[in-house]
Amino acid sequence: MVKMASTEEQDRKIVLEFCHLLEKSKQLFNGLRDLPQYGHRQWQAYFGRTFDVYTKLWKFQQQHRLVLDSKYGLKRWQIGEIASKIGQLYYHYYLRTSETNYLNEAYSFYAAIRGRAYYSRAIKEDRPDLMVKKLRYYARFIVVCLLLKKMKLVRELVIELERQIQEYTTTYEPEDQLEWSLVLEEIKGFIKAESAVAVLHADTNPIVLSHRLSPLTTPPCERTPHMTLSLQEILIVGSACEQAKFSELTMDMFRMLQTLEREPTDAMHPMIGHPMAHGGPHDASPAASRMPYGVPGSKGYVENGDRRTMRDNPHKYLLYKPSLSQLMVFLSSGFKELPPGGALLLYMSADGCFSTTKHPQDYGYELGGLATSVKRDAVDGGLSVRGKSSAGYKEPHCLYPGDLYPYTRRPLFIIIDSDNSFVFQHIPRYFGQPLVILMSPQDIPANYQGECE
Hints:
Blueprint: H1 2-31, H2 41-63, H3 65-72, H4 76-97, H5 101-115, H6 128-147, H7 151-172, H8 177-194, E1 199-200, E2 206-207, E3 230-238, H9 251-259, E4 315-320, H10 324-337, E5 342-349, E6 352-354, E7 368-371, E8 384-385, E9 398-399, E10 412-417, E11 435-439
Parallel strand pairs: 3-4, 3-5, 5-10, 10-11
Antiparallel strand pairs: 1-2, 6-7, 6-8, 7-9
GO molecular function, one term: transcription corepressor activity
Protein name: Protein SCAI
Pfam family, one: SCAI
């Protein structure tokens, strides 16, 4: 009798500890959205605490699965929800650090959810909110697979997502039915645009090519004493209208971010093991025990903030249709974070703001620039997007070449993809620092205008 009471007390403590870890993990995860998107030190410590709690939670539910099943009523979709949150953590950590290995970690957890069918009985729970979580999981998994160029799996997931959306809308007739239909169309349009140029093998089967750098595709470069600069900070901005996009990732952003990354390698960080290696006794689930480099408590954390020893890729910011103020904040943050010998790259795809000034004298502000927001101010500007204006004011939502002058104090690489790109050719080198400007053609060749996405 005493032994039974002791066992029940032990089981009660296990359930209470699980509830405590679960609640704490939710609080920390919800707090991630309040962290600043720019800078480095401001968010690293918080991410470290969040990873630590989710590691404990995942291990705890593995070690005590039988007790949690019988005493707490732990369901498979709840395990899937924890795994999904860990996958999101790794994905967002990839976005903030540009380390492509964390994409593989996110993929491991998302793939395990699908492989073990954690959400298979979601529709039988009679909870529309649970079905929405399942649909969001599919959308996130598709993004990760797109970034890892797993196109065959992407197409399989799209078919599954379409079936799940149909089941969701038929069962619940929800208000967000149209919203999910649009998400599905976005995904299909993005995949179609991504494969617009196909490279075929000799047997006419398409070849999936990676845009990332790898030793097999990058010729060796012999370092010389004159090669003192390295690319450290990158801003990728997608502001062009009428472009294929999915999840605030336009096609040009999608391609450019991969071009500026190295292929993920399992050998890069020895502490990152195979995701199935530490499963519990009840199923071989992925282990949330691989804390990323660069967060407090990990082996790669450096107190003085020197990130060059921790990552192999330059740090990136991805901005989808930002306002001018947002763009300037992130640009300034990247400028501030540049280490000695570091260079900043700005890639911007946007529609042009065109000037009506007949005899421009100030090339910094009188030739026009790039539109950063489709929203217009109450006061009409002296420039317009693809139009004319009679007033003499400058457009407040336009990024002018002159806005970039202060950032030429450090080595700067600018890539402009726009129908008004030529106006950036006049940026001066006031401070004698290296400056490279690549400008796209202003017009699309007539033969390809019909194929423009």
